[in-house]
Every structure is written in structure tokens, then in C-alpha cells.
């Protein structure tokens, strides 16, 4: 779901990968304002998602990784609720489907890893 979201349309002239690169380039101009911290948190959630197969191979606990991805899902949902009241419907409809597939991928992976059976030693 996560990778598929990059190839889906988002907004009028924007694709999922465009949205990813906007936030990827954003934190290099870090300050302590809320927009910079939001961009940093979004990038950290993307980094955890991208590195999750490697982290699992290196012995990272699936439940911990699942909780981290679920927290990424919760944080990334604030993008919808942080809109101006006049723009909510246009933006919520316009983000479909790339944003929602990307956003839900955190929920699906997080819940799946959290519910994964613990490895026996």
C-alpha cells in the first residue's frame, strides 16, 4: 500500500511521490516552529516505514515497530484536521487516493506488526 501510494494521483497536478519529496526536502530548513516539527515527524514516520523490513531482519521487535507505525498513522492524520475550515472539503476530496492509501498503510502495517506473534527463543 505504501509503495502504491507514490504512483497514485493526489490533488490536481500532483502525484503521491511529489507529496513525499515535498516533505523530504522540507526538514533541511529546520527551525523550532510547528511546521518544521510536523515535517520532521512525517519524515520520521516515512523513514520507519521504509526501514521496517530491515529493522525486522535485524531483530527489532515487531510489536514495538507496530506501535511506532501506528503512532505515525495517528500523527499523519493531523494533516486532514489541520486545514482551514473553508478548504476542508476541497482538500479532503482532492487528496484522494494517494494520501489516503499512504496514510492507511501506516495503520495496516502497524496493526499487523503489533498483532504478530512473538518469536520464541
Offer a few descriptive terms.
single chain, 121 residues, mainly alpha, two-stranded antiparallel sheet, 7 helices, 2 strands, globular
The helix tally amounts to 7
User: Which band does the percent of strand residues land in?
Assistant: under 5%
The largest sheet is:
2 strands, antiparallel
Strand order of the largest sheet: 1-2
Question: Strand-and-helix sequence, N→C?
Answer: HEEHHHHHH
Task: Tell me the helix content.
Answer: 55-70%
Stretches with pLDDT under 50, minimum 5 residues: none
Could you tell me the number of beta strands?
Answer: 2
Shape: globular
Q: pLDDT average, as an integer?
A: 82
Q: Please state the structural category.
A: mainly alpha
Give the radius of gyration: 15 Å
- The tally of domains stands at 1
Task: Provide a short characterization of the protein structure.
This protein is mainly alpha-helical. It contains seven helices and two strands.
Blueprint of the fold:
Blueprint: H1 2-6, E1 9-10, E2 14-15, H2 16-25, H3 34-57, H4 62-76, H5 78-81, H6 88-94, H7 98-114
Helix pairs in contact: 3-4, 4-7
Question: How would you sum up this structure, described in words?
Answer:
This protein has 121 residues and is mostly helical. The protein has one domain. Helices cover 68% and strands 3% of the residues. A two-stranded antiparallel ribbon has the order 1-2. A hairpin with a 3-residue loop joins strand 1 and strand 2. Helix 3 runs antiparallel to helix 4 and helix 4 packs antiparallel against helix 7. The longest helix has 24 residues. The protein is globular. The mean pLDDT is 82.
Amino acid at each position: 500500500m505504501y509503495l502504491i501510494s507514490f504512483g497514485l494521483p493526489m490533488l490536481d497536478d500532483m502525484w503521491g511521490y511529489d507529496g513525499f519529496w515535498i516533505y523530504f526536502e522540507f526538514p533541511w530548513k529546520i527551525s523550532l516552529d510547528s511546521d518544521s516539527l510536523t515535517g520532521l515527524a512525517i519524515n520520521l514516520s516515512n523513514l520507519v516505514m521504509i526501514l521496517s523490513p530491515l529493522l525486522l531482519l535485524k531483530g527489532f521487535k515487531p510489536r514495538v515497530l507496530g506501535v511506532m507505525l501506528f503512532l505515525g498513522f495517528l500523527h499523519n492524520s493531523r494533516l486532514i484536521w489541520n486545514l482551514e475550515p473553508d478548504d476542508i472539503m476541497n482538500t479532503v476530496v482532492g487528496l484522494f487516493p494517494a494520501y489516503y492509501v499512504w496514510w492507511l498503510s501506516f495503520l495496516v502495517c502497524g496493526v499487523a506488526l503489533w498483532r504478530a506473534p512473538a518469536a520464541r527463543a
